[in-house]
Amino acid sequence: MSPGPMWIGRAYSHPIAVIAGAAAVVVVTAIRPARVGVLAPALFACAVVGLFSRVTVTVDRRGLIIRYSWVGAPRTRVALDGIVGADVVDVRAWRYLGWGYRGSRMLLGTAAVVVRSGEALRITDRRGRRLSVTVDHAAGGVEVIRSLLGRAAESSGGGR
Q: In this structure, is residue 41 part of a structural domain?
């Protein structure tokens, strides 16, 4: 069995990386030795902000996987058999109140991974819930998802 089509897209945000790095420097230099207990949580918060400075999105026969930061963790996965559609949308960070993981697919029915404003790949699952992720060349990911969904329909007899 051939592995089928595959697509990898990335997005990087210099402003988020700079903000996280600058905040870490400020935290380390501003915390006095007597207040060391504040240092770890503050640095953790800077690291969490830094997670959203880069995403790598992979689309293949398994579905969609979003890897955050340079280490590739945490991950968001959506299985191919749970996806019913994909399209390219325009996402503006201000509409989502900033950068990061915004919303909730489970509670609100929509979520977005906003690394920067602009082009995003949006998937819709069987329940009508949507997940968007800002990524360069999102049309390539949409094309692969649609191709894989078409193959799945053909193999189940839905394409006849």
A: no
Q: pLDDT band at 71, cuts 50/70/90? A: confident
The tens digit of pLDDT for each residue in 128-159 reads 999 999 999 999 999 999 999 987 666 666 54
Provide the token pair at 153: 């329909």
For residue 73, give the CATH number of its domain.
2.30.29.30
Please tell me the distance from the alpha carbon of residue 53 to that of residue 117, in angstroms, as a whole number. 12
The structure tokens listed for 43 are: 């640095």
Please state the rounded mean pLDDT for residues 79-93: 95
Residue 131, beta-bridge partner list:
111, 123
Which residues on neighbouring strands pair with residue 66, listed in sequence order?
A: 57, 76
Q: Is residue 42 part of a domain?
A: no
C-beta atoms surrounding 17 within 10 Å = 16
Between CA 109 and CA 98 the distance in angstroms is 19
Query: Which contiguous run of DSSP H or E holds residue 2?
Result: none
Contact (Cβ atoms closer than 8 angstroms) between residue 105 and residue 113: no
